[in-house]
Design a protein that fits this description.
Structural class: alpha+beta
Number of helices: 8
Radius of gyration: 27 Å
Number of strands: 6
Distance between the termini: 21 Å
Largest sheet: 6 strands, antiparallel
Shape: elongated
Low-confidence stretches: none
Strand order of the largest sheet: 1-2-3-4-5-6
Helix content: 55-70%
Length: 359
């Protein structure tokens, strides 16, 4: 059952965490404003959009991004103070075991973990729609509106190619579709131009040639204009890596399956994003255990020494996580393994430190 001691630790844990997050968010927003103020002024960004479309939606993104780090710092900070005030010694001498003392820490870590899971998979994708739209309009250059050398598998055995595609007018150039079965190529359509008619929700193909192969027989059809349904939309040609930030968990999974069918070369990047959304809450629990094990011992130097050890371990975890995801994105390491290896290894470290902690 939850006792006064549990409520005391939970209150200290969550209070320190949210206080630290609030302070750093204020500092980050101040620095961000100073960096982007010229963009806001030069592009006449309305104050209401700056506040509500950008910074208001920036807060949950930032909380989720740094929640494991600030969870760890919060644990180190208030547990070190408890240790320096001999509160930990008093708790253990009262007959409460070290494992029992971990209960309120785990409850608090679970609350933060569930919060980050909700933020990453449900809330942040919704607010990112407004944040990224604001960045595109008022901060970043819009850049080129065309894509080139597009290869897609739109259905099993059906391959699409576009030499170039203009997003501004939804028009592609030097277009082809090939259909392949067990016997090889049996259908090929080529055209000079393809454009999307938004009123009919159809693609219009101009100056086309259709080649149909049936064994040794071939059939050619040429024409000027052909309206057809293809299982793609103009947005499929303009999706960027940041688009996954606007998808909730179910949408992201569906999108990954679709991209796997189409043979996208960004699959590993999307899979890393998917697994990170799940692993972050567990990383919060692991770092909480490490923080308690390190800071529960009373040592000379007090909070300063504990924070130094804690920051070394935290940044080692972040560095290891970034390195492993790079191997997944640009190497042969599976995304699932690359994302979970840091959490599992530091989980083993947490178990070791808990065993060595004062009892």
């Amino acid at each position: 059952m939850i006792k006064k001691l549990d409520l005391y630790i939970i209150k200290k844990f969550l209070g320190t965490f949210f206080y630290a997050i609030a302070l750093i968010i204020i500092v980050v927003i101040i620095f961000d404003i100073s960096e982007k103020i010229d963009d806001f002024i030069s592009k006449n960004a309305p104050l209401s959009k700056i506040i509500f479309n950008y910074y208001f939606n920036f807060i949950p993104y930032f909380i989720n991004l740094f929640s494991p780090l600030f969870t760890f710092i919060a644990v180190i900070f208030f547990t070190s103070k408890m240790a320096s005030n001999t509160e930990i010694v008093a708790i253990l001498n009262s007959g409460i075991s070290f494992r029992r003392m971990l209960l309120p820490y785990m409850v608090s870590a679970a609350i933060i973990g569930l919060m980050t899971f909700y933020l990453a998979n449900f809330l942040i994708p919704k607010v990112n729609v407004h944040r990224l739209a604001f960045e595109k309009e008022y901060i970043f250059n819009k850049g080129s509106s065309s894509e080139s050398n597009i290869h897609l598998q739109i259905e099993k055995g059906t391959y699409l190619y576009l030499e170039s595609y203009d997003n501004a007018n939804n028009t592609g150039y030097h277009f082809s579709i090939e259909k392949i079965n067990d016997n090889g190529l049996f259908f090929k359509l080529t055209s000079d131009q393809i454009s999307y008619d938004s009123t009919k929700n159809k693609w219009q193909i101009r100056n086309y040639t259709i080649r149909t192969i049936d064994g040794i027989n071939e059939k050619f059809i040429r024409g000027n204009v052909l309206d057809t349904n293809i299982s793609i939309t103009p947005s499929d040609f303009s999706k960027k890596s940041k688009d996954v930030e606007t998808m909730d968990y179910s949408q992201l999974r569906k999108f990954i399956k679709q991209e796997q069918l189409r043979g996208s070369d960004r699959i590993k990047f999307y899979e890393v994003e998917k697994y990170q959304r799940i692993s972050y809450p567990f990383a919060t629990i692991v770092l909480t255990l490490i923080g308690v094990a390190i800071s529960s011992r009373k040592v000379r130097g007090g909070i300063g020494i504990h924070l130094a050890y804690g920051l070394i371990i935290t940044f080692s975890f972040i560095l290891f996580m970034k390195i492993s995801t790079v191997f997944a994105t640009f190497g042969n390491l599976p995304a699932f393994i690359s994302v979970w290896i840091p959490t599992l290894l530091f989980g083993l470290l947490a178990i070791y430190l808990i065993k060595k902690a004062p009892k």
